[in-house]
């Protein structure tokens, strides 16, 4: 078992402490491991701040979009059985989708968020349940009518689309709708009554994940489960309803889990799809999940339900997640046989930055969170003029770019963010303790027609 470099550990834990202060983090748990052993553990804060209840490796957190990797794993099981063809168009399995041939994506493209869908309005589970007059005693995670209605709502919105990122496969743009459709495939073709039943019987139980589940009512009965904290206008809200921002179809972000269970789950990738020597998924398919099938950033790609990247000649893959009271990340390197899990009970914390730094730490690399370094430049007045404007999405993004001195100033909600141009078609956008890479899509005349925020393409409106 490799010992953790104490100097690097101090650097890492100082960084985490600074992040906790900057983002008002209430509780966080981090565990680093290899195929057999725990290499590193860091826990700070509480699962229930008001009662000063501690976090342990068995504390249940929401994991948000890490769920997408679980959903992909389930779909890959259906691929290995010959039930689903990755290169088939989605309407072969969901014939109610009526897009034109030029905009009909394949299953493979949906898994990589390259189906051509711009960010869309989120249909929240709690809102749809109200329209169905469902009682509080009914479990949403196994509610057949909710699943059918959710899929129908997404299909209706997709069929009405007039604007796309481009042709399927042309651009990556993170899409919850894509994984809503993947959820629908598992629901319809998995051979079980419900997506949630499939996940329990074919993923959670075979892996021995005893504290991983989709049910929402169960969260009210659990011991050792975290509250959900969000900072709103300087006030800290403490919530207990895990349905609050739940997406109408579950495969995109509804799973709840623990540090211990996610450690077991991550080892499935480190062991080529086997648990205790028994295969859960074909090794070639689980390896394909971690390969970069589309480009996201100069230092990062997207596979199937997983982001992939590299630092210090070490390849890694993983995924982050975020919902109300949830900031999460898991990552692993097949190169070194090591993995990391980060679970946090506070909204809008850059858990991926913490996770990358932690992954570096356990691989004996200086644990900064950055994967690339860029030289800045100044934009000419003509480029600035072609870039300023208002950018909006149906998912709720509203970004205004105003002229600055050799750059633009990024206004988003109450935030005014500094922007450093790194090319004529990309910029670094600075946040509290981190930065994000923002590509800009321009037309033939150099006018910006879209930009990226949170890996989503956001169209210019004015």
TrEMBL record:
Entry's Gene Ontology molecular function annotations: hydrolase activity
Every Beta-lactamase-related domain range: 12-352
Entry-linked InterPro entries: AmpC-like, Beta-lactam-related, Beta-lactam/transpept-like
Keywords of this entry: Hydrolase
A family per Pfam: Beta-lactamase
Top-level division of the source organism's lineage: Bacteria
Coiled-coil ranges (or none): none
PANTHER family in alphabetical order: BETA-LACTAMASE-RELATED DOMAIN-CONTAINING PROTEIN, D-ALANYL-D-ALANINE-CARBOXYPEPTIDASE/ENDOPEPTIDASE AMPH
Protein name as annotated: Serine hydrolase
